[in-house]
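Look over this one:
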Amino acid sequence: MDQRLERIEQMQREMQEQLQAQTQEQLAKIQQDMKEKIEREKGKSTMGNDNEDPIYSADFALVNTQPQPEVHPRTIPITIRPQLYQANVSTPLNIPIGLSSKPGDNLANPFVPDLDDVAEMEKEKVDLAKQLDDRCKWIEEKFKAMETADYRGGIDAKDLSLVPDLVLPPKFKTLEFEKYNGTSCAEAHITMFCRRMTGYVNNDQLLIRYFQDSLIGSAAKWYNQLSHAQIGSWKDLAQAFMKQYGHVTDIAPDRITLQNMEKKTSESFRQYAQRWREMAMQVQPPLL
């Protein structure tokens, strides 16, 4: 549970960082676009001033004139503060509105930025934040659904055990069983199991409990799906097992199978000979 919450929080942090990086990139692009527009307008204004004809004649001269200090009109900055999604970070964007304050600029053609582009970019950021929020909610719902599925059966040991009231006999030692994986004869496996449990064949709870130790693979998964309501005795378990795997029977080897039997790279010749003799005893029809 804690690991899943940490994963959700980590994903949210990564999404927030991604959104913040995209927002910073968009703001930098807006600033660059505004700067390029200002430079283009300044270039046009300078060219216009150079081409204008002077308003005085060629022989006109100014007498006793004092140079007037240049007056640069003040600009009114507009600060646009983008609202980042779940982050206390704001990057102000100052856009000068009005006449340029730099000497030599054309005072008759002030540059006014297109605020529609800025508004469109703000709208895209809001849409991106909404998509991110929806994605986070979707991930949280998926995790909640997974948690509900994992714990729908409960975690009480008594609910999960087929024999919750089992009491082990005094001096009972756990036995080793040949494992059944669902691909061999089911009847032969039950016979082998009961013979290994000789001395406890009248203890149904003990038989039910330790039968799972003789199963592996798909057979063990089948056992874990059983419930206490289905299995009330060893007979119920044996019948359910035969119903599930009764169609699986051992096929006796024939002479061709024995002839094609090869030595494994991981076994010695003595082991190979022993395995060959065991199979030869099972061949049908029997060898002379």
